[in-house]
Amino acid sequence: MKYKMYGIPNCNSVKKSRDWLNSRNITFDFHDYKKQGVSESHINAWLKQVAWDKLVNKAGTTWRSLTQEEKDQVVSADAAKALMLEKTSVIKRPLIEDENGKIVALGYNESEYEHIFVD
Predict the structure, then answer these.
(1) Does residue 9 have a cis bond before it (omega within 30 degrees)?
(2) C-beta neighbour count of 83 within 10 angstroms
(3) 39 with 85: CB under 8 angstroms?
(4) 3-class DSSP state for residue 79?
(5) CB of 11 closer than 8 Å to CB of 104
(6) Are 6 and 91 in contact (CB under 8 A)?
């Protein structure tokens, strides 16, 4: 199976994830949010699989750099989608989907990766 990873190359979680997958010869394409953006249709598809508050990375620097007013406005899937389209780096990373567009991993967790990609 071939996977697609969405993220930002300089993100530590993305680096760990890429290294982990590469060390196990797991094939994936990398989609750089910063350079390639992300479509509304992709975000809509992800929101059908994962709650909006799981897709928004509230621990990251992009979220922390928002004003309190901006943060307070993110109270629904539509508001989260608008923010993710405007500031792609607020999307939790890495997001890995299979060739059918199903999210198989969100964030980096080595024990979860063992179960997802090796078992």
Answers:
(1) no
(2) 22
(3) no
(4) helix
(5) no
(6) yes
* Arithmetic mean of pLDDT, 75-92: 96
Distances (CA, A) of 83 to 14, 28, 63, 90, 119: 21, 27, 10, 8, 36
**77 burial type by CB count under 10 A (0-12 exposed, 13-18 middle, 19+ buried):** middle
pTM (two decimals): 0.93
3-state secondary structure of 76: coil
DSSP-based three-state secondary structure for 5: strand
Q: Which residues contact 22 (CB under 8 A, 6 or more apart)?
A: none
Q: Which residues are catalytic?
A: 11
Largest CA distance in the chain: 44
Cα gap 70→109, rounded to integer Å = 29
Helix pair angle (40-49, 77-86), 10° resolution = 140
Confidence of residue 34 (pLDDT cuts 50, 70, 90): confident
50: pLDDT strictly greater than 90: yes
